[in-house]
Design brief:
Length: 615
């Protein structure tokens, strides 16, 4: 049989048994949502709690999972995640096998069969994971060596911004290493495509099926590659089509609704319901057809193996298929439209225009002036920012300077570091001309000078920077703030949770916050006053939960109109931006939006700023 015949067979099987596959999809989704998903969350949460904290952020995640205990917990959690991910695919494979025999399988008996094989699936997932780790570890080690050999002499931000020759050399070498790794990974993963049918349909054991699958696939990779390529192209096209439906439907809904918010809610509810239904169907079709394609390949390549079906397949006999009447599908669609419209209306009612976030100038108004300079802070004051966010480091002489990177390479091309260079040498370097020659007089400012400029004019968000050689940074920062009489005009934050906790011990009444880009666990349970999180991860649920627990939420770095509007709609307490003037203007405009326009902002927030709300 050729590819065309296989595609025809797959389509006939899907069309004939689509109700059964739909039932499997719904039941598996419910099981993952109600049981397997929470179990995975519990394992991840337990792994995080084993670290001694309710949550881990950024580099702490890496350091913990590189420890022996953390690595073992990571393997266990990752294997469980793979098991959860393939559970529905495995069920579709078994149902497809029965369909090929012109027999249906009862949903309950299929579920019982799958749960009985759950341990085998987990063991298979764990073995796959270990083999992947063994394959990738040498390549990652070589890539890491190249990185440390070429890209650690200066601060990483210098390499990312200036891209000197060593950046391109290291980048090219790392790309070659990763491409080679990707080729071997793809070869290994593609060789495992028959592992599931060998495990579930035959009597293969988790320790045997990976090797046996590679033996069967060897010599037939071209056939496999063609099957996978066609599958990817078809469903990439369908996904793009579904995305276009949302775009066109949204604009049509806005055009038909006119100025009526209620009509807009109902029309958008219908559009989102249809879009969700199409996404659901494409997801169902993609998952089922891939498994059916693998099943046909298994039947063809494993036909010379001894015919020994799994004894547990007998559990699938003597059970009626679950029928899904068409009227229930129609009722489900109508219900989905009504619920979607209701949700849109409720979210509109929950919008609170009186909640206005404060604007924090990121390293000063660094869009218009060189970062962390007195000029940037003066510009932030002129643009009406509520706060200025600055970075502070400790020098070997015991001074505290305002400086982000560990050296001056990015802003001045100078290798001087805060801890190694005398203050007089640091302040001899021009750190403004890279932005504009008119800033040539700008120098690395003392923290005390920034406080003097900001006092009673703008509040200061102080980020403590740690590069491994600090001795009394927290004490010195606290003393300088008190000398300036600005205890009620500052907050302290850092990427380092130990640093935040040390400041809490020194000054328990001062507001302190944790800076985070990624996290594991329940971040909102950490004992801090606020979180400064990457705007990409500031979803409404996190913002609401944090505020319910009396933690404020700041988001960074928010520099465009649409994202600022989205953050306002999500109810964040502060926006950290390089463009405080623009942020103030966006907030002013947001206050004047009528309900219709504010509803569109909410939609933009939900759908990734698809709609040009700036208009």
């Amino acid at each position: 049989m050729g590819l065309k015949d296989d595609m025809g067979t797959i389509w006939v099987l899907f069309r004939k048994h689509w109700k059964q596959f739909l039932a499997i999809h719904l039941a598996a989704s419910l099981l993952v949502f109600a049981v397997l998903g929470p179990l995975l969350s519990l394992v991840v949460g337990w792994a995080v709690l084993a670290s001694g904290d309710a949550a881990l952020t950024d580099q702490d995640i890496l350091f913990y999972f590189l420890s022996p205990r953390g690595f073992l917990l990571l393997l266990f959690a990752a294997a469980l995640a793979i098991t959860v991910a393939v559970f529905e695919s495995a069920a579709n494979l078994v149902a497809g096998y029965r369909a090929r025999q012109s027999e249906s399988v009862g949903l309950w008996r299929l579920g019982r069969f799958m749960l009985m094989r759950l341990q085998d699936l987990f063991q298979l997932s764990l073995r796959m994971l270990l083999k992947l780790v063994l394959l990738t570890a040498p390549f990652m080690a070589v890539a890491g060596f190249i990185f440390f050999r070429y890209l650690t002499e200066f601060d990483i931000n210098y390499y990312l911004q200036e891209r000197p020759p060593e950046f391109w050399t290291a980048g090219a070498l790392i790309v070659v290493i990763l491409l080679l790794m990707a080729v071997l990974l793809f070869r290994m993963l593609s060789g495992w495509v028959l592992a599931l049918p060998l495990l579930l349909l035959g009597q293969g054991k988790p320790g045997e099926v990976l090797g046996l699958s590679q033996q069967l696939v060897a010599g037939h990779r071209r056939q496999l590659m063609l099957l996978l390529a066609v599958w990817v192209l078809v469903f990439a096209g369908l996904s793009a089509l579904v995305s276009a439906v949302l775009d066109l439907g949204a604009w049509a809904a806005m055009a038909m609704a006119g100025s009526s918010l209620e009509r807009l809610a109902w029309f958008m509810g219908g559009v989102v319901a249809v879009w969700s239904l199409l996404n659901f169907f494409v997801s169902l079709l993609a998952g089922v057809t891939l498994m059916l394609g693998i099943l046909l390949l298994y039947e063809r390549l494993a036909q010379d193996l001894p015919a020994q079906a799994s004894r547990q397949l007998a559990l699938l006999d003597a059970q009626h298929d679950w029928q899904v009447p068409g009227r229930w599908v129609l009722l489900g669609l109508v219900t989905l439209i009504v619920v979607a419209a209701f949700v849109f209306l409720q979210q509109f009612k929950q919008l609170k225009p009186e909640q206005v976030p404060e604007v924090m100038a990121h390293r000063g108004a660094s869009w218009d002036a060189p970062e962390n300079t007195l000029a940037a802070i003066r510009t932030a004051i002129e643009q009406g920012a509520d706060w200025v966010e600055i970075d502070v480091q400790e020098t070997a002489e015991g001074n505290v300077v305002v400086m982000h990177d560990r050296d001056l390479m990015k802003v001045a091309g100078s290798p001087l570091t805060a801890f190694d260079a005398p203050l007089v040498e640091l302040q001899a370097v021009d750190i403004g001309s890279w932005k504009d020659p008119k800033f040539s007089a700008e120098r690395v400012p003392l923290f005390a000078d920034v406080l003097a400029l900001a006092k009673d004019r703008i509040k200061v968000n102080i980020e403590l920077k740690y590069y491994g050689r600090e001795t009394r940074l927290e004490e010195r920062v606290a003393a300088l703030v008190e000398q300036a009489g600005m205890e009620d005009q500052v907050v302290i934050m850092s990427l380092s949770l130990p640093g935040v906790r040390k400041m809490q011990q020194l000054r328990p009444s001062w507001p302190t916050g944790l800076l985070a880009s990624v996290s594991l666990g329940d971040l909102t349970r950490l004992e801090v006053d606020f979180f400064a999180v990457n705007a990409r991860f500031a979803n409404r649920r996190f913002v609401t939960l944090a505020q319910e627990r009396e933690r404020s939420v700041l988001t960074w770095t928010v520099n465009d109109f649409a994202l600022m509007s989205a953050m306002i709609s999500k109810g964040v307490d502060g926006i950290i931006t390089d463009r405080p003037g623009l942020a103030k203007e966006v907030i002013r405009q947001h206050k004047t939006l009528d309900p219709y326009e504010r509803f569109l902002v909410q939609l933009a927030s939900k759908f990734g700023s698809r709609f040009n709300i700036e208009q």
